[in-house]
Amino acid sequence: MELLKRRIIEDGRVLSDQVLSVNTFLNHGVDPVLIAAMGREFAERFRDAGVTRVLTIESSGIAIAFATAAELGVPLVYARRRKALMNEGEYYSERVPSFTKGIVTDIVISKEVLKANDRILFIDDFIANGDAARGALRIVERSGATMVGAGIAIEKAFQSGGSFLREQGIPVLSLARIASLEGGQVRFAEE
Amino acid sequence: MELLKRRIIEDGRVLSDQVLSVNTFLNHGVDPVLIAAMGREFAERFRDAGVTRVLTIESSGIAIAFATAAELGVPLVYARRRKALMNEGEYYSERVPSFTKGIVTDIVISKEVLKANDRILFIDDFIANGDAARGALRIVERSGATMVGAGIAIEKAFQSGGSFLREQGIPVLSLARIASLEGGQVRFAEE
At which positions is 5-phospho-alpha-D-ribose 1-diphosphate bound (chains A, B) (predicted)? Predict the structure, then answer.
């Protein structure tokens, strides 16, 4: 997606060979025009997949997932990161390490908002080694629902998360695929 | 807002005299049609306030704040809850207790996304005793920006947060004001 790639070049900041900050427009400061356009891209790609629910994990996927869900006309659920919030009934829980934050959290989804007949489109801002996506996929599978696609804003193609999802047979649309952040430079993967 | 009040009656769950769960449509499961309508209400009310940025705090305000920002055509910023995420430059930080979670967190906003000439519309899903709003207001004031209004989905009118903001001279629009949750019943405040 040219709009996103251009914005990454203009306003992204390479913090290390592994970490790209998009704090000013994607996951702290948020540009609604860009995010709405991303939502339309994901909706267009997965329009015929029979999606019944969009799933993301708090917090940084929420705006993009909301835009996608609104465009598809289906509900959204965002997995929460602490059990403390979910002490009111039954939920699915998976332990997930976070690559950028260096911590392990539990992601939880209430059984009220994830059903066995759901067809889930997973949306997130980044995929790196895929731990979050893996956790989300495990929960979806345990619920009996099906993950019919994944829409990722920025895929770090030099890590294995995107490949993992594709190997599971899940169609993945990444709007920007980054081949390398070495030397402080963003290099995108060939289309 | 009748649409929200009706939904609270139909799908909300009173967990105690203090706590109302809206997990199935507002802050875990999210109904994009409802949230978009809420964004339009906030945008309409504050259209002439010269808002330059919408501010919320992760995570449960993000979808509503995004809908509002998209409607107003201004950027959004959501305060993050941990310093670990913000080790890349300067930020404002305030310590905020959470009523429902019983924990204290630091909310942080990068100086990159909050400027002295900003006119801020604060958006959140709930206001109870107002600790989060108070923390957000302190950060806005320290940055030199101005909080020109607050849009709250659900105000617990039996707690003091909404009154606190109004006493600061900040116009507050709450879409549903709850007078009491006693006896497992939602009673709305008179308009």
Answer: 128-132
The residue of A16, A31, A33, A62 whose CB has the most chain B CBs within 10 angstroms, and thus the best one to mutate to test that interface, is: A62
User: What average pLDDT does range B80-102 have in this prediction?
Assistant: 71
| Number of inter-chain CB pairs under 8 A, A vs B | 122
Separation in Å, CA of B119 to nearest CA in chain A: 15
- The hierarchical CATH code for the domain B2-80+116-182 is 3.40.50.2020
Return the residue of B nearest to A63 by Cα. B63
CA separation, residue B75 to residues A24, A184, B65, B68, B118 (Å): 10, 27, 10, 10, 11
pTM, 2 dp: 0.94
For chain A, the structural domain boundaries read: 2-188
The answer to whether the CB atoms of A84 and B73 lie below 8 A apart is no
In a mutational test of the A interface, the residue from B13, B27, B30, B125 whose CB has the highest number of chain A CBs within 10 Å is B30
Q: Which residues of B are annotated as a binding site?
A: 20, 27, 128-132, 156
Would you state the pLDDT for residue A22? 97
Give the residue ranges of the annotated binding site of B for 5-phospho-alpha-D-ribose 1-diphosphate: 128-132
Which band of pLDDT confidence, cut at 50, 70 and 90, is reported for residue B176? very high
pLDDT band at A3 (very low <50, low <70, confident <90, very high): very high
Mean pLDDT of all residues belonging to chain B: 93
Q: What is the CATH number of domain A2-188?
A: 3.40.50.2020
- In this prediction, residue B170 has a pLDDT band, given cuts at 50, 70 and 90, of very high
In this prediction, residue B89 carries a pLDDT of 59
Residues from chain B that touch A76, judged by Cβ atoms under 8 A, are: 29-30, 32, 63
Percent of chain B clearing pLDDT 90 (strictly above): 85
